[in-house]
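Thanks for the sequence, V.! I ran Histidinol phosphatase right away. Repeating your input here for the record:
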Amino acid sequence: MIVDLHMHTTCSDGIYSPEALTKMAVEAHLDVIAISDHDTVAAYAAPYHLNAGTRIIPAIEMSSDYEGEDVHVLGYYLDTADADLLAYCAQFKERRFRRALEIIDRCISLGYILDRGYLEKRIAEGSAIGRPHIARMLVKKGYFSDVKSVFDTLLYRGGPAYVPYHRKTIHECIDLIHHAGGIAVLAHPGLLRKVLTQVLTHPFDGIEVYHPKNEGRYEEFLEIAEQKGWYVSGGSDFHGVPGRFPEQLGVFVVEAKQVERFLNYQRN
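Predicted structure:
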């Protein structure tokens, strides 16, 4: 059995709809998946109809930070109808939209010609808008060759078009996940440069050992999980964006036996 416990849809910054993604998961012979969109569980609600050909664990990826570094907290086995969780998602969506418009305005002030009205229309229709969407707009306009170049030039933390935003603390994210009946997992620890030791002191339930950005450090993170008694998780962090690994589902997968305890979790 193979699994992928980290992927994104059009409900956040992925390319494919929840329906399309779950269909692709079945075609890739994935036995268990988790749609973990950024700060939303919209993929699990109407009007989406998820393909029933694979087991789906309801999930979210929450945004936090610690001393200037991005820290993401994955929540699994959630009650996606939990009132506090839905309130968090709604508030974050509103803040993200306001931030996107400010980023667009900064890009325009820097001389990039972008259609603010198009973005406002997308927002009014309920589309998720964030930095990756704006980056793709700039690539489509021909200003940059790829999304990474946009981030490296304009949208990195502290960059010319970057707009900071308020996020929940790590503790607050973990508490929200627990309140919704889920388990909290530290996402892609390999991306943390200076603050990993401090972040690991927070009351997570698990750690994402298997991730493309963790390669070469699996044993290190497995040892942490064993020492702390944490669940081991893993996934591809699939977005479907050209040029971002993996570009297809099924390219980076995790053996079910590697995350067996996680897969056997039973919500109380």
